[in-house]
User: What shape does this take?
Amino acid sequence: MKTSSDLDRDPGLRISVQSGDEQLVVCVAGEIDVYTAPRLREQLMPLAGAGTLIVDLSEVSFLDSTALGVLVGAMKRQRERGGTMRIVTAGTRVRRLFEITGLTRVFTCYETLDEATSG
Assistant: This one.
């Protein structure tokens, strides 16, 4: 996979994009909240397409409802363009948030990036 340069401008949030065969992997680390979620949205929306978009949240320490809204919006856009979206939660508190909110019924969630890429 090719890796783009780190798209980080905020020490609280780091985003990088890896491209491979029919898949784009967006690796996110840090906190996604009302202040940083717009940056994530800016990165995800242009990536929507017919392939598979994988968002790796295994290094995310915190996310709020704004972040969940960004992910739902990205998934809708991905589906509108004939693609699929997968989420990596790696058994973290983030995974628990997806379970509590019922988003595990909306998103296909994986424990590891390897599982998501071979999915």
Summary: The chain has one domain: 2-114.
